[in-house]
Amino acid sequence: MTTPMFTVYTLAKLYGVKGDISSIARQGSGSACRSVLGGFVRWHKGCDPTGLDSVAQQIVPASHWPQLRILILVVNDRQKKISSTLGMQQSVKTSELLKYRVSHILPHRVDSIIKAIKERNFEMFAELTMKDSNQFHAMCLDTYPPALYMNDMSHSIVHLVHLLNSEKGRTKVAYTFDAGSNACLYLLESDVSAVLSAINHVFPPANDSVEYLRGLPVNIDPLDKKVAESLAMKPYEPGSLKFIIHTQLGEGPQVVQDLDQHLLTPAGDPKFLTPRHDN
Amino acid sequence: MTTPMFTVYTLAKLYGVKGDISSIARQGSGSACRSVLGGFVRWHKGCDPTGLDSVAQQIVPASHWPQLRILILVVNDRQKKISSTLGMQQSVKTSELLKYRVSHILPHRVDSIIKAIKERNFEMFAELTMKDSNQFHAMCLDTYPPALYMNDMSHSIVHLVHLLNSEKGRTKVAYTFDAGSNACLYLLESDVSAVLSAINHVFPPANDSVEYLRGLPVNIDPLDKKVAESLAMKPYEPGSLKFIIHTQLGEGPQVVQDLDQHLLTPAGDPKFLTPRHDN
Questions:
Q1: Pick from B120, B138, B194, B136: nearest CA to B161
Q2: Coil, helix or strand for A214?
Q3: A137 interaction partners in chain B (CB closer than 8 Å)
Q4: How far is A175 from chain B, CA to nearest CA, in Å?
Q5: Confidence at residue A82, expressed as pLDDT on a 0 to 100 scale
Q6: Start and end of every Diphosphomevalonate decarboxylase-like N-terminal domain (chains A, B) (predicted)?
Q7: What are the φ/ψ torsions at residue A274 (nearest 5 degrees)?
Q8: CB-CB contact of A128 with A134 (8 Å)
Q9: Contact, A58 vs A37, CB < 8 A?
Q10: Taking CB atoms and an 8 Å cutoff, what residues of chain B touch A105?
Q11: Per-residue confidence at A185, pLDDT binned at 50, 70, 90?
């Protein structure tokens, strides 16, 4: 959800614009054009120099896969962020591997992940998601000078996910990282409690962390002693992760008719003022 | 310099073996076959399944480029090391990008770096070295599960090198990382003092570090205040680096005739006992 997306969606509704507004949102940003639709979305790169055919298309609505859950692991970060637009422009200029990825690897991979989503094949979806996240960050490293987004904590999360998946020989959780160090984990509702137990064991909250887990409520049991011993990963200092958001797929922007759900008062003032976070 | 290399070299000398001993050392390890020769060496991958044609060949002896210096920045590391042999076997199995790198990128790159070395073209040599180190680690990240060798400190060293090179618009120092987090920097003798000043400013030694800089002696002035301010990189905690080795290209293993240079007494006992380091 981005500011350009909200602006385009709101103006389109206000003026009664019909049809595809994704190409208008694309003028604002890539994430804006993806966010005007809900569920799983494919962003077509297009070939028109004006960018007008660089639009998003819904693959399935959120209701297609109601069991899917998302955990956002927000990481403490010392590094200065590189703008994802600048980083990608530099990759296009300097990474020889990027050309090969775009022409030879991505077309097949996009078809496969659409198939996995349509069939709700979690293991296939998870493996493709992780491989593609790794390859995206490999491209960033092959850029000159290299663009670095993941840090040691991000890689520790990757390591934990592979340990959890190999533990029972079943891919039950997947990671993906965009142009930043925070992890986005995909998993099924039935695995949320067990995976969060393991995350809380390895990355315990800081003692003063009043709201470590945000979003959808979930019961977390302490990690079973035997599982903890077999995990082969020592717990980190409390507070190594800032906080965790537990959420699910959304249906995209909506016109809210119920006044109680509005974020603004009828006078246009915000109803809630929450403390600002760094991330 | 590796144990298999020393064993092969010593036995070859003892039994008067003539000719190429690199292919014998290759049976021990890749670094062994490279280390039986001095200066710059090319390791041919070969195509014989027995590995007998996987040998090293000297490009130039160390005396070809006497101005070249090497700084090894030894990094504190929490992560468990992945064996480079296991990691590479996994990359060959799972990384689609590796196939493209081997078939389409490396042949031209090897020719270019040999040319740069023969012509003592430092800027060309440095840029190719950095790009190839980045691409090697990109391959490791494209491996499934990813093989991680560099850590946050390694990437901070990369960042510092690019800052130093962009500062005066001249590539005066290059980094390369093998299957570990320690940096190997190449630079010319005339730049050693200034580069070490910047390294000491950003990565100050721990207060109790008695021998932070080892190897060839060099005078280091504190970093000029103006340069420090323009560097756009805050100093790290003292002791973030373990220590630094300042060295140069070697001529490979030698038969030492001078008894004073022997490491062992005539009875075969070690002359020096130095404290053991973790790295």
A1: B194
A2: strand
A3: 141
A4: 12
A5: 67
A6: 9-56
A7: -105, 150
A8: no
A9: yes
A10: 96-97
A11: very high
Burial of B107 (0-12, 13-18, 19+ CB in 10 A): exposed
In the beta sheet, which residues pair with residue A175?
A185
* 110-149 of A, contacting B, C-beta below 8 A: 127, 130-131, 134-135, 137-139, 141-146, 148
- Contact between B101 and A101 using a beta-carbon 8 Å cutoff: no
Closest to A95 measured CA to CA, from B187, B186, B139: B139
CA atoms within 13 A on the CB side of B181: 22
- Two structure tokens written together for A145: 């000078």
Q: What separation in angstroms does the CA of B114 have from each of A95, A150, B45, B107?
A: 22, 33, 16, 11
Distance CA A132, CA A129 (A): 5
Candidates B74, B41, B76, B39; CA nearest to B57 is B41
Strand ranges inside A3-129, DSSP E: 40-43, 56-60, 68-75
Tokens matching residue A247: 């959420």
**What structural domains does chain A harbor?**
61-261 (3.30.70.890)
Q: Between A126 and A21, where is the model more confident?
A: A126
Most trustworthy range by pLDDT among A46-50, B16-20, B56-60 = B56-60
Q: Cα–Cα distance between A185 and A174 in angstroms, integer?
A: 5
Do A138 and B134 lie within an 8 Å CB cutoff? no
The dihedrals phi and psi of A82, each to the nearest 5 degrees, come to -95, 135
Q: What CA–CA distance (Å, rounded) separates B277 from A108?
A: 49
Average pLDDT of every residue of chain A: 86
pLDDT of residue B66: 96
In angstroms, what CA-CA distances link A78 with A144, B137, B162, B166, B270? 22, 22, 18, 22, 46
Nearest to B162 among A97, A145, A162 (CB): A145
CA gap A247, A69 in Å, rounded: 6
Is B96 an 8 Å CB contact of chain A?
yes
Residue A186: CB atoms within 10 A of its CB come to 19
The residue assigned the tokens 């190449």 is B186
Quote ipTM for the complex: 0.84
pLDDT at B1: 46
Per residue in B154-212, pLDDT tens?
999 999 999 999 987 899 999 999 989 999 999 999 999 999 999 999 999 988 767 89
Per-residue pLDDT at A6 exceeds 90 = no
